[in-house]
Every structure is written in C-alpha cells, then in structure tokens.
C-alpha cells in the first residue's frame, strides 16, 4: 500500500495527498506533519519506512469539506485520491492485492464548487495572465457558475484589473518577468506558476474549440493571441485539476476596458468599495447598498459596483429598470417575495455538470425554474423597460423540464443520491415494485420477530440488522442456554456472542434477508439510473437555464436598488456626455447609515458644482480643520459618481453627472514597509500615477498632498500638483489641503474655486458644522482639535503660546519669525493646572436641592427664572 501511496504522491508533489482508506482520508510523511499542524488534529504513526516511523494523520470522509476549506485558506493545494474499485474486487486478485486508487481531483483556491467551500454572494475566480510580446491579456472563470471572461490590456493595467476581479487563484507563466511578478504578488491571489506550454496560443485555440464544439472562435469574437493564450491556459489547468471532467463553461465574453470606468487598486482600497480598510465586508459600500435577496443578484451587484459602465445607453437602461420597479411598489414587493424562494441555479447547474451534485441540486433547478415561471406570470401585462423586458423573455420556456422534475422528485430530496428515497412514488413502475417488496419485507421481519418471541417464550427477543451479520435474532445472555438446547437449537443457529447478547439466525430469516436486500439494492440502483437521466435532461437545457438565472439576477438587482432608493431617499441621476459634476444635497451612503445605526446626529448633506467652461470651476480647493468632514465630502462625491455609472440611484436631492472615464482617490495615510516605502513615498507614488494617467474626463479626489515632508516642500508639491491637474490633466477634482497659502491659486487659475468646511468657535472650543460652502478657511484650528482629542491642558496651553509666536513671526516676515522661535523659552512647559478648590456655585447648589418629580410645571418654570437670575450675579 505504501508503495502505491508514494507513487501517487510523486506525481503530485506540490499538493497534500488525501489518500482514501475506507471512511477516512489519510495523510503520511511530511503531508501528515503539515496537515496535523494546519488542522490542529492528532499526529500518529503507522509502520516504518527506511527504518523510520511513518507520520500519519487522517480526517473522516463525511466531514472532509470543512478540513479542505481550512487547508485552502491556509495556502495548501489538496490532491484527492479515491478508491477506484471495491475492496472485494481487489481481493479476487489475491489476498494481498491493493485496492486501485488514483487522484480524481486537485482542489485549489480557484477550482472550488462545493456549497460549503464558497461564499454564496461572491464569485470565486480563477484567472490567467498571458503576455505575448508587448500585449497582455487577462482571462477569468468562475467554475461554480460557468462565467468565462477575457480582456486585452496593456501591462500597466494588470494591477488595476486584478484589484477589480480579486481572483482566488492566478495562473502565470513560470517564466514571467520581474515587473509583472511583483504586480501579481500584490493582487492577494494564490499565484500558481504553470508551464509555458499551457500558454501556447495555438494549442490554446484547439483546446477552446474542442471545449465548445466549434470549428472556430470567430463566432465568439475576434481574440488576440494573448487572449487566446490566457483562455487556453485556464482550460488546460482545469483539465489537469479536474482530471478531464471539465466544468460547464459559457462561451467566453470579451470585455473592453473602454466601456468601463477605470479604477486603480489604491482608489478601490481608499473608497472601501467591496471591503473596508479593516479587511471585512462590513463598513464597505457594497455592504451598505446590498439589498438583494438571491445569491446570483448579490454577485451581479458586486460585478456592477466593481465595473461601472461608461456607456450612456447601458446606464440609462439600468436607471429605467430601477425607476420602473420603484414606481410599481406592489409589483416590487411581490417580485421580491418570489425571488426569496429562488435557489442558486448557476452553482447547482455547475455541480451537476461536474458530477459533484446530488438530488438537492435537481430540486434546486426545479424550484428555481418554477419560481421563474411564477415571476413571469406576475409581470404579465406590465409595460417593462428595455432591460427588464429582455430579461423577462428568458424566464419561461422550461415547461417540459419543470413537469419532468416535478413528477420525478419528492418535495425535499436528500443530499446524496446514494441515500436513495428522492424519486417520487408513481414516477417509475419498476422502482415502485422494488420499494413495495423492500417495505413489505420489513413488515414480514416484524411478523417473524413476533412469531419467534411466541415460539421461544422470550418476550425480549429482537430481530436486528447490521452490515456484518445482516439480519439476526438477538436475545440477552440469560436466555442463551434455552436457545442452544433442544428443540430450539434445531431452528436457531448460533452466530455470535457479545458481552450481554447472543445472536442467532434461521433458514427462514436468511431467505427473507436475501429477498429484502435484493429488493432494496435494486431500488437504489434504479434511483441512481433515474438520477443520471434527470441530470442529463437538465444539462441538455444548460444554456437556457443559465439565461434564466441571469434574468432572475437582473430582476433581483433592479428591485433591490429600487428598495434602497426608496428606503434611503435616493434620486435618479441625470447622466450626459458633459464634463460636469453637479450635486445638490449629496450624502455619504456608508457614513449616513452608520450615524443612523448609532443613533447620532443626522448626516449633513452638501452640494458640489464642478463645471468646465464659462464661469464655473472644474476643481474645488477645499480647506478646513481636521475632523470637519473634508475626507467624507471628497469620498461621497466620488461614490455618487461611481453609483450613478454602475446603474444605481444616488444619495442626493439631485445630481447631474457627465460620464467619468477614470476615478482616482488619494485619501488617507499608509505605508508599505515590506517594499521599503514610507507613508510619504506611498503618497507620492499614488499621486504620480494620477498625474500620469488622468484624462480630461477623469474625476480625482486628493486629500492633504505633501503632508509627509517639510512644510515648504509639501506646499511646493501640493501647489505644483494642483497646477498640473488644472493645466495638463484638465480633469474634475476635489483637492483638500491644510496649506492655506494655496487658496491664492483660485485667483490665478480660472478653473479653480475655493471651498471650505465651516466650523464655529465657542469659549475656545471648535464646533464642527460639516457644511461645505464657497470660500476659504482662515486657519486650521489644529490646537482646538488637539484639545478635543484629549491632549493634556498643559500641552494645549503650550501649543497656543507657540502658535501665537509663529503667527506673529509670519506677519513680521521670515527673519522675525526665526527670531521669535529662538526667543521662545526652552523649558517653559506649563505645569498641569492645580485642581479647582472653589466649592459649587450658587446655581449648582440650587440644582442639587431640586426634586423635579415633586414640582408642578409652574414651579419648575419659576425655578428656571430664579436660576437664570442667580447665574447673572455669579
């Protein structure tokens, strides 16, 4: 056996080998050591190899999926070696013959299909990156849904594309160059180098045409060599990992980058589109807007949010769909109620195609198609907009399949086909006859037990069954002597003695067992055959079922976004081909929901007015203190533009948005120590990317450029950056800064206008009003903010002294400023103020003596007047 194990392991040296032995997957040698540590399970040993103990651990087959998930998340690949024959068959070749085993599947992060291993509301992409000369292409597939996409892109766009897709696993040529290797290592995907032969475009085209059964790929579009190379590598890898059992993939869909808003990795991270900066989904924009009720709808929402459109007609159609479902409130409620009953058709279909499904997947297809028909009836007579009308056409046409599955399956089938009992009574005559014999056999066994109890006079006699002895008569040890003596010994033959029972059999019982077992086994074989027939009937309609699944997701998303718009008071944005961004009463969707959940103050809405040409300005220079809400304001305008172009309504009173080609965000501070980059270096790298790439239709938000270096260096960099955005990029931008000197640029640059976040001072403290108005802030209020943060009073007082001195020097000229700094006492830090020794005031005394519950309204009002007079005298 160990020779067989080592031979299989040698062929899969880069994966942990799950070696099937009966009801367990066993691991040996180094695999066992690694798996035991990763899974926190016991490490044992079995025999010796080359004079040393063989390490061993194992996991039960019935619960293997949970262990697989843990291993995959920790970066392992797992090869599943199953028994390919029955042990009884192996014994026929000789007593010491080893059961045939081989790897039937390689489990990797990008090739998961099991429901328990996947997030229902997210795609699980396997991607491949191909480079042919100076051209690059990225292909990606979700084998759990069959989605297959490809795009050609310049190498510089690989990073942003990977940030958009967030693949679970990325295939690269083992000879990929250093620059791209660094890019893919930052993607967060499990990177799998494969041979150059897998990326051969000529071989790739043959694999693809064979997979889809076509003579040429031209029917699906004009693909570049790099695109064919990437797609071919994916198909080759799937053939390797699935051991020839390829998943049910849809024809490849070619995506054009020019049709999507371009968003780089830093912007996605800063805006927290699908993941919060803390790493989880909670706190992200996706979590705030997701009201879908189906898994397919949730995945469609994430795709739309990650890839906003730049095509005006597409955006308009999506807005029309939301507008229709928003107006038809009764229809929307009925639609969402029906959609809640829709299972995940895509993933059920994929499991059936890979032969990893079961009766419940058959039932999922049945239930999903039935709900699609019901939704179609709900929509009958409605004047649907273009997008929903097209989707509605794919909801029907499954009458024959629905009828077949409805007649064949019980309401709630078991998980596994081998369990049987999932075919409905009356569907197959032969099955019904076998079941009848099997079930009547059980009643016969019960009658035999009664007969034997009366014959022996032993009321506790039982007829039982196990997989070793089959059916047997069981009595307690106290009655054993009676059973072994005449005349009972003539009928009852001893089979086994345990600690407390003795077991017997009879010729009649053995004969009945044969009949029952044959009937039960026959019934199970018939059900397995019928399962295969139903599976084939479904796979024949796979393309139409996929279309229905997409249609249901489209309806789910439209209804969900309409529900969001109604519940959150969002408006339909006006989209055009201008380069303007005009928003009235805009709000940050995530912050607004967070404030509401915490029971805090309502969100303060603000306007934005970026206009090219005329008297307008396409860049707003935003000043104001920290914590006043500048970053929130910057982000909310970017999110409103993004939501509008993904096809959603937006959190504002009104919005008019000219199509945005690129979205860039440089907000927040972070370092990248692993690559030797300080916070300032990261800031400069991201700013450089914006200045080098932004076109005149881009939207840029920049916050505190230049803060990570000396004051004059930072001011110079921020100044030059703003000039470049205005003169060279000519894009729309919100530029937040603490350098008040930059407000002078509004007089020099026609397209720049000053705006500020208002605050109010009260008794030396600062109150944030969170309102953005035209104009410039007169100062930063940094000392007041420091006081709010809890700095010791002595530190705050000292800071005020230094600030006053610096401001006086600034007014007197740079030389005087230096002199003022030199004149500041070196050790003049004020000691902490002594605690107040005065007793309570007269007003405080009166308040302490009051008992509001005992006062009438008139007495309370009189007391209020008295307290007011007392306060004046103090």
TrEMBL record:
InterPro entries: DNA_mismatch_repair_MutS, DNA_mismatch_repair_MutS-lik_N, DNA_mismatch_repair_MutS/MSH, DNA_mismatch_repair_MutS_C, DNA_mismatch_repair_MutS_clamp, DNA_mismatch_repair_MutS_core, DNA_mismatch_repair_MutS_N, DNA_mismatch_repair_MutS_sf. The keyword NADP does not apply. CDD domains: ABC_MutS1 (cd03284). Gene3D superfamilies: 1.10.1420.10, 6.10.140.430, DNA repair protein MutS, domain I (3.40.1170.10), MutS, connector domain (3.30.420.110), P-loop containing nucleotide triphosphate hydrolases (3.40.50.300). ATP binds at residues 624-631. Belongs to the DNA mismatch repair MutS family. This is DNA mismatch repair protein MutS.
